Amino acid sequence: METKSVVKVGSRKSQLALIQTNTIINQLKKLNPNLSFEVISMQTTGDKVLDAALSKIGEKNLFTRELELALEKKEVDFVVHSLKDLPTALPEGLLIGCIYKRDSPYDAVVMHPSNAGKKLEDLPEGSVIGTSSLRRAAQLARKFPHFKFENIRGNLNTRFRKLDEDNKYSAIILAEAGLHRMGWPDRISQVLDKDTCMYAVSQGAMAVECRNSDPFTLSLLSQIHHPETVIQCVAERAFLKKLEGGCSVPVSAFSEVKDGKLSLTGGVFSIDGKQGRIEYACDSLPESIEEKEKPTVSPNGPREFAGIVGSEKVSIATLEVAQRVGLQVAELLLNTEAKEILANAKAETAAAVIAEKQKKDAEKMKNEAEKPQANGIS
After folding, report:
1. Is the domain defined by 107-191 classed in CATH 3.40.50.720?
2. Catalytic hit among 77, 85, 103, 214
3. From-to residues of CATH 3.40.190.10 in the chain
4. Bridge pairing between strands 36-42 and 6-12
5. Is 85 a catalytic residue?
6. CB neighbour class for 39 (10 Å; exposed up to 12, middle 13-18, buried from 19)
7. FRET partner for 37 with CA separation of 20 to 30 A, picked from 70, 80, 259, 305?
8. Is the dihedral of CA 165, 168, 171, 176 positive or negative?
9. Is the pTM of this model over 0.85?
């Protein structure tokens, strides 16, 4: 097996992304003090396109494409992601080599300074809540139909600036994990429980993607593969993959490993939140979740579950249970009105993508038409 003295790591350029990347590197350094790590940061499509809601851009790998291309070209050995940004279908030859211990998966409310100390329940009718997530807006609209939900894009620093300076938003909704990683827990006014807003699939988990043909990196990453997080995320991603969901549809999840059992609750909602369906499944995990024998690797690479590999810490049998639970919840939903809700949400989002493209094309044509006139005037 090839060995390396310097490991090249791909990351997005945002402050949060670099914090997450360095968290992974620091853990690996503790376990492998002789290794050196070099961070190669880059902007992704999602970082560049900030004038439209994620759901209106019409692409699934907005925050991963450029990083995955660097992996495929062997410019980096692995890349660090927020797992919720990774599509359930990965490019051929790539997989999730490890998932680090999950932080809080819940959503948090950050209030405008004028509303400091308040909760959503305290805000008046017509308050504008900023979120880039259809999932959050749909669920919160069910509980707070008197609020207006508007898109807010940009990295966390940008969203905070928009909240504090624009006076447009009464509050914004962000992932609690990201706020803690950035060192801003004092801005959290409220954490939303699962009855108010179930979280996104794999929210709060950091994943490391690598090539399936790179045994050195796979072995390295297996050291920080967190068993309970892996079990939960396999179930959640299998659920989402079966539904063929993503950021373009309001799909939510809540999973738990407790008393030797894995449970998963999954929800599907209409864009406006007026319709929704929630289903639940539970199954017993093997008595020992660890792999008793060293996992065998085929010529095509290790076996994957929703893009995630097992390890000696998490047996194939355990991951099979997790995948089965995820598929069961998805199938329960697809046998109800949720199937139609999902189809309508996808159609509505697809129409919004087309409308957004037409709008941008019209603006581009207008700008080009005005150029000669402007030159004539000057």
Report:
1. no
2. 85
3. 6-104+201-339, 107-191
4. parallel
5. yes
6. middle
7. 305
8. negative
9. yes
